[in-house]
Structure formats: structure tokens, C-alpha cells
Write a structure and sequence with these properties.
The complex is a heterodimer of chains A (389) and B (415). With 389 residues, chain A is of the alpha/beta class. Chain A folds into two domains: 18-162, Rossmann fold; 168-194 and 232-385, Rossmann fold (3-Layer(aba) Sandwich), CATH 3.40.50. Chain A is built from 14 helices and eight strands. Chain A has helices at residues 4-16, 21-30, 44-49, 80-89, 106-118, 137-157, 163-189, 196-205, 211-226, 250-258, 285-296, 310-322, 336-351, 369-385; strands at residues 34-37, 53-56, 96-102, 123-127, 236-241, 261-266, 326-332, 356-361. Chain A has a four-stranded parallel beta sheet with strand order 2-1-3-4. Chain A has a four-stranded parallel beta sheet with strand order 6-5-7-8. In chain A, strand 1 (34-37), helix 3 (44-49) and strand 2 (53-56) form a beta-alpha-beta unit. In chain A, helix 1 (4-16) packs across helix 8 and helix 12 (310-322) packs across helix 13 (336-351). Chain A is globular. With 415 residues, chain B is α/β, with parallel strands linked by helices. Chain B has a domain at 2-173: Rossmann fold (3-Layer(aba) Sandwich), CATH 3.40.50.11890. Helix content of chain B is 53%, strand content 11%. Chain B has helices at residues 2-21, 35-40, 48-57, 61-70, 79-89, 115-126, 146-168, 174-196, 209-219, 226-245, 274-283, 311-320, 328-341, 356-359, 362-373, 392-414; strands spanning 25-27, 44-46, 105-110, 131-135, 250-251, 254-255, 261-266, 286-291, 346-352, 377-382. Chain B has a four-stranded parallel beta sheet with strand order 2-1-3-4, with helices on both faces. In chain B, strands 8-7-9-10 form a four-stranded parallel beta sheet, with helices on both faces. In chain B, strands 5-6 form a two-stranded antiparallel ribbon. The chains are: A alpha/beta (389), B alpha/beta (415). The complex binds iron/sulfur cluster (SF4) (2 copies). One iron/sulfur cluster is lined by residues 49, 78, 80, 113, 115-116, 324, 354-355, 357-358, 384 of chain B. One iron/sulfur cluster binds at residues 78, 80-81, 104-105, 107-108, 245-246, 332, 335-338 of chain A.
Chain lengths: 389, 415
């Protein structure tokens, strides 16, 4: 088995490769196609079922120089779409045969139309996830959307849509979510053994690796961390909320941890675990996938909250589940879903006397001093006074 | 227009008295509103965006936004939402100075704007009343797919109508709904005729600044009412008379008969300095001959009319076709066609900081429209109701330079 350093180094190399070399290599060796998707939730099972590689395009982070992307966006729009456009216009996404745009917000929605103009020949689909909770209308609508997507992608892949193949993909992505669940539980229980910086890199690898390879990597990582004899330190346990789409720079995650916090739950790359229950295997796989979304999608800022007290209860429930001491609301600047949700979520947290701080970042934020001070003071105040300073 | 003022004042009077008269009140948004359906149950619609824009025009929005930001709302989000939240926190006195009633039902028609969902989640925190949700699929493929239309129809039948029945205590009356849809269709015919008069020279209307008044009744509470239909009949007669007399519209610089530049505009206006903004155009002799903003509450000029023959299906078609629910390529086509059909000299985008639904992608829209029409466009940045983002000097400068450029092009073309 690989050592911890080898696993993390491989994940880091994948994360740092803005040219998606592993995806290009996969396409070249298998002779098959790859289809990209933007945050937050895309039904990767459908892409996989037709023999293509699902590729998460999670922005350019802090290592991508934006040369063309800024010409497409005003200063008051978040950073993610400009780095995605940069990746596109610089040819780095040329290996993709299609792109899915989940209904995360209006920025990503409008980007789907921009894509059609910028790449007229490329398959582009907007994934209008159902915002209604009814198992009848909502699931029927989403099943139909998934069916259209499956038919389109099968055509693109040159195969016939095959329910058995989709069932296998559903089962495989159940395993993916299982192993991610195991990683999150392990970090929650022993955060001193699984720094979030590493966990995050492993999850990022899952955005570009074939699912089978990711599962192996994640299991290997779990095994080496379980064997680790690191000892707990005097740190506070926090959950980081709001970073589900535009990803924070790795330096920001490190800064939070170095400032005396263990991150014990977060929203990073939320789409990879948005379904909180396994997709049932057996029966019609499209119906199973659609139903699971409608019944078991995790409450989050990208979906309408139908329960009147849902927003109020969400953070206290997450804090309790993670046995956290406090909450860091970390949202990308100009991010509608995260920032519009924040007052509601924060009110729920404060009503339950949960200490909170809030800040905004961009994926290309380079200076962390201010975050270090904020997170450091937060952690000290929790240690000294339970956050009531 | 006096008639419109009276209609609106009367509507707000009824809203204020609703707690005593027990007229049920339904909060809903402009794009994708189901006004005829709501009214067929004897309920009164109340539209939070209209309150926000009116607060902006009446100089109240700065205070309301500050109130909302003090309560933890981010500087970076839609100012309509903050203006509304601030208004509620300041006593919920509406734009006409009357107290607004609490909703009996929050009817969220999620049409073309993500923020609507959050806005209603926020409103639900303020009011203890039922909320019902209508998901309108986005026209990403440039059309409302038949299965999407069916999805909307199913939701209206299975959720929206039962919710309205429960709140109002009345049974669904399809005959009544058909009758109201007939008023809508008549008003829409007249509105389209009015907007299309801008093809004339001089244009008898300003199809951006002036037209926001014209679309007021149909976008707010008066679609599907006899008063609404009568208003548009009267408006059409008034505008036809202007055409016959060869007159231009009344603007802040007086009547604009001598129109030097014909412009198409994309994006919402700024409401806090609305007249000042308009005057910058009229001082230059520029008239707006078409705009996309006046289609947020429905696009009628391409043939859609509410159809009393298919009452629920027509509501689905209406919701799907509102401007904010159109794809970016459709929006570009629309602007290109406006420039051509209305023989415009130029086009301008007013990009508002508040609104990702409108603004994300506008720089590409600008380039594409330029490419396809051969006409350079102008790009201005402001906001809807946050006065901090209306820089009069900057905007004036930009507009003047743009007009000078159009003038130079004209000379160049003539030489
Ligand atoms: S960061 Fe927020 S606003 Fe930007 S694309 Fe993502 S969800 Fe949308
Ligand atoms: S984001 Fe735009 S469309 Fe949505 S409520 Fe605000 S101004 Fe209206």
C-alpha cells in the first residue's frame, strides 16, 4: 500500500494540475470521452453509465492567472465563473466533450448560455434540479430530465442507453458516497489524524479520477490515517459553512487549522455527498436516482427549504452532529446562495448560543493574515469563555 | 397618467384594509406571477419587488438597506431583498404611505431568478403563514419543453390551486379564471400595440424609462382585471393620438419631438435617480425605442397572449416565457432583433450590481450584439435601489462619450 505522503502527494499533484493531465491521459488510453460539470450537484452516475469520465470543474483556485476571464464579468460577480471561462478560453478544457451546468445559482445558469456561444459544437446541458419536495411531481420531472440527459450522453458516447449499466453506476457512486462518509466520520472523530487540508485534496482527486480509482485512494488514505498515532491538540472544533461552490484556496483551509481550529464538518465540494441515502439498486435506475434526490438531498443553500423552521434548525443540528464548538461562515464574495442564507443560518446558530464568525473570500485570495487573526481570536475566545467573549 | 395613480392608490387602500375586510392577501413576484388565478379566488396580490422599487423612487431605500445590513445582510446581495427586509423591519409602511397587510399566503413562483427563493425563505421567517412553491424550469434550450410545461401545469393543479382554495375558503372557478384571462389578453394586445409604436419616427413613447410606467399595471396587480384592460385601451388611444400628431414622449427635458438617437436598452433602470438618469438621455436627444426590462413580467410582442381557452396551460406558457427565464442566446437574439426592427442607432446595457440573473453574462451579450449588428454598444453600471452605486458623473460621462461616438459614426457614414 502507498504511504500517506505518497497518497497525499498524488492528490496534490492532481489538484495542482490546471491542465487536467490525468483526464487527458484517461481519454487517450481508454479512447473514451470525458464530460465536465460545474458545482454543486451533477448526476455523475449518468455520465459514468455511458462509459464517459465525469470531471468536476471547480474553478482555477489561486494558481490560475486570469487573462481572458475578467473580460467576461463585472467586478461584482464572484470569481468562479471568470476562472472557469479562463480555463475554457485557454484551451485547458478542450478534452471535454460536454459540460453540465447544475442549477446552483443564476451565475452558473447564465454561464450555460455563454458556453453555447463560446463553444457552439460542444454538448451543453443545464441541470434544472427539482426545487419541489413532492415525490410525485418533483421526482417525475427530475426523472425525465435525467432520461433526456442519459439519451443525449449515450448519443455523444456512441452507445445505447442501458439500464443495467446505470444500475452499476448507481451502485458505484453509492460506494463513492460511502467512502466520503467514512472520511468525514473519521475526521469528525479524530481530526488530529485527518487534517482537512489532506482530506480536501483527496476529495478534489475524486473530481477528476475515475470513481473506482478514487474509492481505492480514499480507502488507502483511511487505512494509513487509522494507523497514525498522532495525539489530539488543544484546538476548538468548528464547522465551515458556505463554501460549497467557489472553493476556498487551500491556504485558507490551512490558515483556519493553524489558527487553532479543527474543521469537523464543512460544505466543500458538497455535490459529492449531496445525496444522503444510497440510491436503491434494483428496479428502474432512473427512478431510483431521481427519487433519492427528491427525498434525500441534503438541506443546503442551493435548494429551497420547504420546512418553515428548516433554516433555524440546520446549523444547531450540524453542530450537534459534528460535536463542534463553533461555526465559521466562509462565503465567496458576491455569492448569492451563501450570502442570502447567512443571516437565517446565523440567527439559528445564535439562538442556540453557538459562537459564530463570518468572512468572505475569493478562490484567488492570496493574503491570509486577516483570516488568521479572526480565526485565532475566535478559537481563543471559545477556549477561554466558550465563545461568549 | 392619473388613471394609473388612482388604480394603484385604490389597490393599496384595499391592501391596507384587508385585515378588516378579510380580503386574502397573496405575496408573489413579478416574473411568473399568477395574478389572474389569485384574483379568481378573490385574493389581492402584493409584489415585494414593486414595493422595493417604489421605495427606491421615493428616497426610502437607503435607510431600508442600511437597516437590513445592520441586521446582518451582506453588502453583496440583491438590494431589492434588503430594501424589502428593511421596510418590514421599519414598520412595513408601503410605497403609498399605507401599512401593508401580512400575507395569507406566500406564493413563490420561482421564475428566472434564484434570489426569489431566498427572498421568500426570508419572508417566511417574518410571517407565520403558509407558503407554496411553483418551480418554473429555465428555458436553457431556447424553448419551454412540453414536459416542462406539463410540470408547471401539474404543480398548478396539484399544489397552487389547493393552497389558494384553503387560504381563501373558495373553490376553484375555472369560468371566472377564463373571464379574467380574457381581460389579460385584451390588455396585452393594447400594450404590444403601444410598445410597437416606437417603430415610428419620432417615437411617441420612450420604450425604457416611459415604458416602465406603461408596464406597471400589467406587471403588478392589474393583469386580468377590467380596470387593467380599460387602462391599456386608454393608453393606446393616447399614444395613437401622439402618433397622429407626430409627437414624441414627455421626458424630464420636456417633450422629445426632435429625436437624434434611437437606442435599445438592456437591464433594469436605476430607481433612486430615475429622473436624473432619464434626463441624461433626453438632454442628448436620445429616445429609447425598445428595452428588455419591460419584458420581465411577460414577453408579449412575439405572439404570446393569455388564452382563456386553456386557462392553466396558458399560465404555464406565460411563466416560462418571462424575460428573466430566457437563455442568454435568446436574450441576444431579442436585442439584435430590436436593434434591427426598431432601426436603432445604438444599444446600451445598464448593468445593475444587485442582479446576477440579469447581469452575469452581459459583457458577452454586449460583444455578441455588437458583432451581429455591426453597432458598438455602451456599458453602464449602477444599481436598482442602492443609491451608493449610482455615480451620476460617471454615468453621464459614459453616456455623453457614447453619444459622441454615435455622432461621429453617423458623420463617418455620411462622408
Ligand atoms: S460562488 Fe456562489 S454566486 Fe458564484 S457561481 Fe458559485 S454559487 Fe453562484
Ligand atoms: S436578483 Fe434580480 S431578478 Fe432577482 S429579485 Fe433581485 S433584481 Fe429581481
Amino acid at each position: 500500500m502507498n504511504t500517506r505522503a505518497e497518497i497525499v502527494d498524488r492528490a496534490r499533484a492532481l489538484y495542482e494540475d490546471l491542465d487536467f493531465g490525468s483526464v487527458k491521459e484517461w481519454c487517450a488510453t481508454t479512447g473514451r470521452k470525458a464530460v465536465g460539470y460545474l458545482p454543486v450537484y451533477a448526476p455523475r452516475e449518468i455520465i459514468h453509465a455511458v462509459g464517459m469520465l465525469p470531471v468536476g470543474v471547480q474553478g482555477g483556485g489561486d494558481r490560475l492567472e486570469i487573462i481572458r476571464g475578467d473580460a467576461f464579468y463585472q467586478s461584482y460577480i464572484c470569481h468562479l465563473p471568470r476562472s472557469v471561462v479562463e480555463l475554457l478560453q485557454s484551451g485547458r478544457l478542450d478534452m471535454l466533450s460536454g459540460m453540465l451546468f447544475p442549477s446552483t445559482c443564476d451565475v452558473i445558469r447564465n454561464l450555460s448560455g455563454m458556453w453555447r456561444i463560446l463553444r457552439p459544437g460542444l454538448y451543453t446541458r443545464y441541470c434544472d434540479v427539482p426545487q419541489v419536495p413532492e415525490a410525485g411531481t418533483g421526482a417525475k420531472f427530475w426523472r425525465r430530465e435525467l432520461e433526456t440527459l442519459l439519451d443525449d450522453l449515450a448519443k455523444l458516447a456512441g452507445v445505447t442507453p442501458d439500464p443495467a449499466s446505470l444500475s452499476r453506476s448507481n451502485a458505484l457512486y453509492n460506494e463513492v458516497r460511502d467512502v466520503i462518509g467514512a472520511l468525514y466520520r473519521a475526521r469528525r472523530d479524530t481530526p488530529w489524524k485527518l487534517p482537512t487540508e489532506e482530506l480536501y485534496l483527496i476529495l478534489r482527486a475524486g473530481e477528476v479520477l475515475p470513481p473506482e480509482d478514487f474509492i481505492q485512494m480514499a480507502r488507502d488514505y483511511l487505512a494509513v490515517t487509522a494507523a497514525d498515532d498522532a495525539r489530539p491538540r488543544d484546538r476548538v472544533r468548528v464547522i465551515v459553512v458556505g463554501a460549497f461552490c467557489e472553493q476556498p484556496p487551500l491556504g485558507l483551509i490551512k490558515t483556519i487549522e493553524r489558527a487553532g481550529c479543527y474543521i469537523v464538518d464543512d460544505d466543500f465540494l458538497l455535490g459529492n455527498r449531496l445525496l444522503t441515502a444510497p440510491v436503491p439498486i434494483g428496479g428502474d435506475p432512473l427512478t431510483a436516482l431521481a427519487d433519492t434526490f427528491v427525498r434525500h438531498a441534503m438541506p443546503s443553500s442551493i435548494l429551497y427549504e420547504h420546512a418553515p423552521d428548516g433554516k433555524k434548525k440546520l446549523i444547531p443540528a450540524r453542530v450537534a452532529a459534528a460535536r463542534a464548538d463553533g461555526v465559521i461562515f466562509a462565503a465567496p464574495s458576491f455569492c448569492d446562495p451563501a450570502l442570502l442564507d447567512r443571516p437565517m443560518l446565523r440567527a439559528g446558530a445564535e439562538a442556540a448560543n453557538i459562537p459564530c464568525i463570518a468572512f468572505q473570500y475569493s478562490e484567488n485570495t492570496g493574503q491570509f493574515q486577516q483570516f488568521r487573526e479572526q480565526a485565532g481570536t475566535f478559537s481563543d475566545s471559545i477556549k477561554l469563555w466558550g465563545g461568549q467573549a | 397618467m392619473e388613471l394609473q395613480k388612482e388604480m394603484i392608490a385604490e389597490h393599496f387602500r384595499r391592501l391596507e384594509q384587508a385585515p378588516e375586510t378579510h380580503e386574502p392577501v397573496v405575496y408573489t413576484f413579478v416574473p411568473g406571477n399568477l395574478t389572474e388565478l389569485v384574483r379568481s379566488f378573490g385574493a389581492l396580490p402584493l409584489l415585494p419587488e414593486i414595493n422595493a422599487l417604489q421605495s427606491g423612487m421615493r428616497g426610502m431605500s437607503r435607510k431600508y438597506i442600511a437597516e437590513a445590513e445592520k441586521a446582518g445582510h451582506s453588502e453583496d446581495v440583491c438590494t431589492y431583498v434588503k430594501c424589502d427586509v428593511g421596510m418590514i423591519k421599519s414598520g412595513n409602511i408601503g410605497p403609498t404611505g399605507t401599512r401593508l397587510p401580512k400575507p395569507d399566503l406566500l406564493l413563490l413562483s420561482y421564475t428566472g431568478c434564484y434570489t426569489f427563493m431566498k427572498w421568500f425563505e426570508l419572508l417566511r421567517e417574518e410571517y407565520d403563514c403558509p407558503a407554496v412553491f411553483l418551480h418554473i424550469p429555465y428555458q436553457s434550450d431556447g424553448r419551454l419543453a412540453p414536459e416542462h410545461r406539463q410540470f408547471i401545469v401539474d404543480q398548478i393543479r396539484e399544489k397552487i390551486i389547493p393552497a389558494l382554495e384553503k387560504v381563501t375558503g373558495r373553490a376553484y372557478d375555472e369560468g371566472k379564471l377564463r373571464e379574467l384571462l380574457g381581460y389579460s389578453r385584451d390588455a396585452e394586445d393594447d400594450l404590444v400595440a403601444v410598445l410597437q409604436t416606437a417603430k415610428q419616427r419620432p417615437s411617441p413613447i420612450d420604450a425604457y424609462f416611459g415604458a416602465v410606467y406603461y408596464v406597471g399595471p400589467i406587471f403588478s396587480a392589474f393583469r386580468g382585471t377590467p380596470e387593467g384592460a380599460a387602462y391599456y385601451r386608454a393608453l393606446r388611444q393616447e399614444v395613437d393620438a401622439r402618433v397622429a400628431a407626430g409627437q414624441g414622449p414627455t421626458t424630464p427635458s420636456g417633450r422629445l419631438d426632435e429625436q437624434k438617437y434611437r437606442l435599445v436598452v438592456e437591464g433594469p433602470p436605476n430607481w433612486t435617480s430615475f429622473h436624473e438618469f432619464w434626463q441624461m438621455f433626453s438632454d442628448e436627444g436620445a429616445v429609447c425605442v425598445a428595452s428588455t426590462y419591460t419584458k420581465v413580467g411577460g414577453t408579449y410582442e412575439f405572439g404570446f397572449r393569455h388564452d382563456p381557452g386553456d386557462p392553466i396551460g396558458t399560465l404555464a406558457d406565460y411563466c416560462g416565457g418571462c424575460y428573466t427565464n430566457l437563455s442568454l442566446p435568446q436574450r441576444i437574439d431579442m436585442l439584435v432583433n430590436y436593434v434591427k426592427d426598431y432601426a436603432a442607432d445604438g444599444f446600451l446595457i445598464n448593468s445593475v450590481k444587485s442582479c446576477n440573473s440579469f447581469s452575469a453574462g452581459q459583457l458577452l451579450i454586449l460583444r455578441e450584439v455588437e458583432k451581429r449588428t455591426g453597432i458598438p454598444g455602451a456599458f453602464i453600471e449602477s444599481d436598482l435601489v442602492d443609491p451608493r452605486y449610482f455615480s451620476a458623473a460617471n454615468i453621464k460621462n459614459r453616456l455623453e462619450s457614447y453619444i459622441q461616438m454615435l455622432a461621429a459614426r453617423r458623420l463617418g457614414g455620411a462622408s
